[in-house]
Design goal:
- It is a single chain.
- By secondary structure, this protein is of the alpha/beta class.
- It has 3 domains: 2-225, no CATH class; 230-250 and 559-609, no CATH class; 256-550, Alkaline Phosphatase, subunit A, CATH 3.40.720.10.
- 46% of the residues lie in helices and 12% in strands.
- It has helices at 2-30, 40-49, 51-71, 77-109, 116-121, 124-128, 133-163, 172-182, 184-188, 207-213, 216-225, 238-248, 290-295, 312-321, 335-338, 344-350, 368-374, 399-412, 443-465, 495-498, 525-532, 589-608, and strands spanning 265-271, 300-306, 354-359, 379-381, 417-422, 474-480, 499-505, 514-521, 553-558, 561-566, 570-574, 579-583.
- It starts with a helix and ends with a helix.
């Protein structure tokens, strides 16, 4: 009978909706520490608000299930049961994997899993290095359990109805063809002109509540569909955007040099995951970075420096190319676009500098290799340049080993030289050879301990460097690649997460024990360095020279939104919902227009490359 097949289809619909509700509950429970200050009842609204996404994904699954009913119209219960069971099991395995992995990724990334994960699948060893072995095992077992339990519920829910299906039901063909065609309604999210989008399920001023409402399977699929499409955000006309953007970069002719020699050696130390909240002179915890705390008195410290993005692939581009992070993608992934970026290494090579890049890991990770080679570094030193016995951490070579090689090469390098060293030991899972008893136990303690270790490596390197002939001719720039959610487990969009240290050291400095309190970000580093070597570096048009007293501001991007701060106020904006996450006291229309103009300029420039 046709009715039996329809009952199976209705129960099948119910099963998948229950699966997505359960997935959402698992996500909320696993990441409940992000739900501080969110009323529990308000958070549970995500189960209702996310129904549009759940129905959309269910619609895709039901479309093919309806076609299966058409294709088996002449078959009996055994054939239909076998085919539907296999079909269901395949989807359960795939969707359960996404459910479980997303729970853990959100804890670290602060956004639901999307096509970003593909960037890391190209280098699976390095991608897995962030995850402890025991956690990988737990996630794997959790996936198996979820599949097992869900499949068991599916069989219990549908077995009796499947047993009632009779063969040779020609009426099923037109009926289920209509049913399949009707799935366009839930897939699109209703009868509206525009199809469903991520923001359609947003309902709260609390980011975590909105993120909980998102069906990660829908979100993942949607991001894959738009993987190669440009991002855009239109806040104002192009003419008004350019006017506001140019006003941000209005400069005076006054220039204050920070160094006392021409053509200094330049060293950039990019510090993995260093947050201002672990640097005492920046208001952070007192005992985590004793060496940097002391060195801050010997150099020039920027008290309000921001990372432009929340991942290493974005931080490197911001530092070395002066290019802002994009909210939903990373230009480093688009080789055809990244090759058009300006490069500190390339520009300094033109001035006669010998250039090199050091990293104790594999620079194939996150497409860094392509970007760095296009940046025209003369030499690379990576984990493959060390004896295999030193490759004994999850990410590669411990920082102190690389620092020793780095110092030795500085001592023999022809001057002037430009050297960049990207540390790695303070990356998750915080696997370091030094265990301090200062910070207790747990994940946060492990992070603080890893920073403490890298800080000790920095202190040893600087102390030894001061005795070398090249030190008096050198400018050393210490800056983080991005901030961290720890200590304190701050919100992923908060300004606290993006505040990072920026410290200038070296014998070439004309000033010591100096604090500069204007707002600066990573993209300003190329122009700052350019001014110290008497170059305008005009190709770095997003970079501003803070020492020349341009406007004091910083921009940062997260998925899918941005923050904009200056020396008096600021705001955080969600591009998906077109709503403010936070407005700081004193926020005015001028600052709002400047921030939105900057965001629009980033989109426009990225799309035009």
């Amino acid at each position: 009978m046709l009715l039996n097949r329809l009952i199976v289809f209705i129960k099948y619909t119910l099963f998948w909706l229950l699966f997505f509700i359960a997935s959402r509950l698992l996500f909320i429970i696993y990441n409940f520490h992000f739900a501080d200050n969110i009323p529990f009842g308000h958070l549970l609204l995500s189960l209702i608000k996310g129904f549009k996404h759940d129905m959309s994904v269910t619609g895709y699954i039901l479309f093919f299930a309806a076609l299966l009913m058409v294709g088996t119209c002449m078959s009996g219960k055994k054939t239909i049961t076998r085919i539907l069971n296999t079909y269901t099991l395949i989807f359960l395995v795939l969707l359960s994997m996404v459910t479980i992995v997303d729970m853990e990724l959100y804890r670290n990334w602060g956004f639901r899993m999307d096509s970003t994960v593909l960037l890391y699948l190209k280098t699976p060893k390095e991608a897995m290095a962030s995850t402890k072995v025991w956690l990988t095992v737990v996630l794997f077992i959790s996936t198996i359990l979820l599949v097992f339990l869900a499949y068991k519920i599916y069989r219990k829910l549908l077995s009796s109805s499947l047993n009632s299906i009779m063969p040779k039901n020609w009426l099923a063909i037109p009926v289920f063809l209509v049913v399949a065609a009707s799935m366009i309604i839930p897939i699109r999210g209703g009868f509206g002109i525009a199809p469903i989008n991520t923001g359609a399920v947003f309902y709260s001023k609390h980011s975590f509540a909105n993120h909980a409402a998102v069906n990660v399977h829908w979100h993942m699929g949607n991001s894959l569909v738009y993987l190669n499409k440009n991002e855009t955000k239109q806040f104002m006309s192009q003419q008004e955007m350019n006017k506001e953007f140019n006003a941000l970069y209005a400069t005076s002719n006054k220039f204050n040099s920070l160094i006392n020699i021409d053509n200094p050696n330049i060293i950039i130390l990019i510090l993995e995951s260093f947050s201002s909240r672990v640097i005492a002179p920046l208001g952070g915890i007192d005992n985590v970075t004793p060496n940097l705390n002391k060195l801050a008195q010997e150099g020039v410290l920027f008290s309000h420096c921001f990372a432009n993005g929340d991942r290493s692939d974005k931080g490197i581009v911001s530092i070395l190319s002066g290019y802002p992070a994009q909210p939903k993608t990373s230009i480093i992934k688009k080789t055809n676009k990244a090759v058009k970026l300006p490069s500190l290494s390339r520009e300094l090579s033109k001035l006669g500098y010998n250039t090199s890049f050091y990293y104790g890991g594999d620079i194939d990770f996150a497409n860094m290799k392509s970007y760095l080679y296009n940046s025209k570094f003369d030499k690379f030193v990576t984990l493959f340049d060390f004896d295999s016995k030193y490759n004994n951490s999850k990410w590669g070579i411990h920082d102190h080993i690389v620092f020793e090689r780095f110092l030795a090469d500085c001592n023999t390098e022809k001057q002037p030289f430009f050297k960049t060293f990207f540390t790695l030991s303070s990356h998750e899972p915080f696997d370091v050879p030094l265990q301090s008893n200062l910070f207790g136990k747990g994940e946060q303690a492990a992070y603080l301990n890893s920073v403490y270790y890298t800080d000790s490596c920095i202190g040893a390197f600087i102390d030894k460097s001061k005795n070398q002939a090249w030190w008096d001719n050198s400018l050393v720039v210490l800056v983080a690649d991005h901030g961290a959610r720890m200590p304190g487990n701050v919100a992923h969009s908060s300004r606290e997460k993006f505040e990072i240290p920026l410290l200038l050291l070296g014998g070439a400095l004309a000033k010591t024990d100096t604090v500069i309190d204007t707002y600066i970000s990573q993209i300003d580093i190329p122009k700052l360095i350019g001014r110290q070597v008497n170059q305008s570096f005009d190709d770095f048009y997003f970079s501003k020279n803070e020492i020349s007293k341009t406007q004091s501001f910083a921009f940062y991007a997260f998925n899918n939104g941005f923050g904009f701060v200056n020396d008096s106020t600021g705001f955080i904006y969600n591009n998906t919902s077109d709503k403010y996450i936070e407005k700081q006291k004193g926020l005015n229309n001028t600052t709002i227009k400047q921030g939105k103009a900057f965001m629009q300029k980033v989109y426009t420039d990225y799309n035009n490359k």
